[in-house]
């Protein structure tokens, strides 16, 4: 099993596990926040938390090289995706149809692209 790419399970699992499983493929940044107690009676928990943090710091994931792309090109592609997402949302009824199960995810996808476009436009203005 060494040097094989991790694949998150996709069948017979709840959506939460699907999401969390995809976090283990090396594309995500992992952080840990440890709360330490100064009380003597919590010494074991403090020691265990510090040991766990030390163990986590030794983990590594494969890195993937990323090719630089121009802001203008990404902005154009994102505008097209946003337009398509808005069209998909406009065709999706809020309730009363089998397609309605996609309504909320499409709303959030539109909100995502809207925020991403604002960020890209600010970056594009700064590059000029």
List descriptors.
mainly alpha, 2 domains
- Strand content of the residues, in percent? under 5%
Number of helices: 4
User: Which segments are poorly predicted (pLDDT under 50) over 5 or more consecutive residues?
Assistant: none
Helix content: 40-55%
| Structural class by secondary-structure content | mainly alpha
Rounded to the nearest angstrom, the distance between the terminal CA atoms is 49 Å
Quaternary organisation: single chain
Structure commentary:
- Helix content is 54%, strand content 0%.
- The chain contains four helices and no strands.
- α3 packs antiparallel against α4 (103-127).
- The chain is extended, with a radius of gyration of 22 Å.
Brief overview, please?
54% of the residues lie in helices and 0% in strands. It is mainly α. It folds into 2 domains: 63 residues, no CATH class; 57 residues.
Write the layout of secondary structure elements.
Layout: H1 15-22, H2 43-57, H3 71-91, H4 103-127
Helix pairs in contact: 3-4
